[in-house]
């Protein structure tokens, strides 16, 4: 068996389930972080943006070739010219079946944004809170860290952005020193740092970082050879694969192919979870036991 994963970005609006796959191991969703604020007063610094939330579901049932709607949240822009930053955006999988909430913006008036929280998923961790600026010295507040896959995102502390603990959330950006712009958060979901004080109004808060969606699934191979009733290789057979749900659960069609013309070999990729599968094979133009040429059910090996 092999484990596969794909990471989606804000450019993705849908994801197509690979052929043969009926279950995803996990879907991890991270929202965008909030942007830091900026103030043009000499005694006021901008607040840091909050980190985006993390949400996860496991063992998700899907249909091969299913087109699943996704939305990957962008990070909020940093404020400039005496403006608040912008909120990040939510990230969602399958119309909100798994949903992570954005980190909020840092304000121009030295108020920090809070981390995203309140999404949908079996496992959820809030983003870290941004920090308020230090007005006495005109230093902007740091941005909050994005939610981890095993922990709440780290809150900023003063000018220092919240650091990732190692579970996959992005770090918050550091706040700007006096008369300097704030720093951007890191992907996924870190909040932007607030700008330091600046009477000219040309400094900006750091941008919040984009979120991500990570989809993970396991694959295995089901293969065999098509043969006639005597056990001889019978090539170019139509082969249909089904997933068996037991006596009362019925079956699900997974896919079809034509076996190799010479060797009779066929092979399907399916999900890696423990399940029962069966195949039906047919050969056009072969005689059945009554010597009638028809589309017969063939044997497998």
Task: Set out the fold topology.
Elements: E1 2-8, E2 14-16, E3 23-30, E4 54-61, E5 67-71, E6 91-93, E7 98-100, E8 123-125, E9 212-227, E10 238-244, E11 251-258, E12 265-271, E13 276-287, E14 293-297, E15 299-300
Antiparallel strand pairs: 1-9, 2-5, 3-4, 3-9, 4-8, 5-6, 6-7, 9-12, 9-15, 10-11, 10-13, 13-14
Describe the model.
The protein contains no helices and 15 strands. The protein has 2 domains: 1-218, no CATH class; 219-300, Sandwich (Immunoglobulin-like). By secondary structure, it is mainly beta.
Distance between the termini: 21 Å
Number of helices: 0
Order of helices and strands: EEEEEEEEEEEEEEE
Low-confidence stretches: 289-301
> What is the structural class?
mainly beta
Could you give the count of β-strands?
15
Q: How many strands, what sense, and barrel or not for the largest sheet?
A: 7 strands, antiparallel
Count up the domains: 2
Percent range of helical residues: under 10%
| Radius of gyration, taken over Cα atoms and rounded to an integer in Å | 27 Å
- What average pLDDT do the residues reach? 90
* Strand fraction: 25-35%
Shape: rod-shaped
Question: Which properties best describe this structure?
Answer:
four-stranded antiparallel beta sheet, disordered C terminus, seven-stranded antiparallel beta sheet, mainly beta, Immunoglobulin-like
């Amino acid at each position: 068996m092999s484990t596969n994963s794909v990471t989606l970005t804000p450019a993705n609006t849908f994801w197509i389930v690979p052929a043969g796959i009926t279950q995803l191991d996990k879907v991890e969703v991270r929202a965008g972080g909030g942007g830091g604020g900026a103030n043009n007063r000499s005694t006021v610094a901008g607040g840091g943006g909050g980190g985006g939330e993390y949400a996860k579901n496991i063992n998700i049932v899907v249909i091969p070739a299913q087109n699943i709607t996704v939305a990957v949240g962008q990070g909020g822009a940093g404020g400039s010219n005496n403006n608040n930053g912008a909120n990040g955006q939510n990230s969602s999988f399958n119309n909100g079946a798994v949903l992570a909430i954005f980190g909020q913006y840092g304000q121009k008036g030295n108020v920090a944004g809070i981390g995203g929280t309140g999404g949908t998923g079996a496992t959820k961790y809030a983003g870290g809170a941004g920090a308020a600026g230090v007005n006495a010295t005109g230093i902007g507040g740091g941005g909050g860290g994005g939610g981890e896959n095993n922990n709440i995102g780290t809150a900023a502390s003063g000018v220092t952005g919240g650091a990732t603990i190692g579970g996959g959330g992005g770090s918050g950006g550091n706040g700007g020193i006096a008369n300097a712009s704030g720093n951007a958060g890191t992907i996924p979901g870190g909040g932007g740092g607030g700008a330091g004080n600046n009477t000219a109004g040309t400094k900006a808060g750091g941008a919040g970082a984009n979120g991500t969606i990570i989809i993970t699934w396991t694959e295995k191979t089901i293969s065999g050879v098509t043969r006639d009733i005597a056990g001889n290789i019978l090539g170019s057979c139509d082969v249909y694969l089904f997933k068996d749900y037991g006596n009362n659960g019925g079956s699900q069609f997974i896919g079809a192919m034509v076996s190799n013309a010479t060797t009779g070999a066929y092979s399907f990729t399916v999900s890696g979870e423990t399940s029962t599968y069966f195949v039906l094979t047919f050969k056009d133009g072969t005689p059945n036991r009554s010597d009638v040429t028809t589309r017969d059910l063939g044997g497998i090996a």
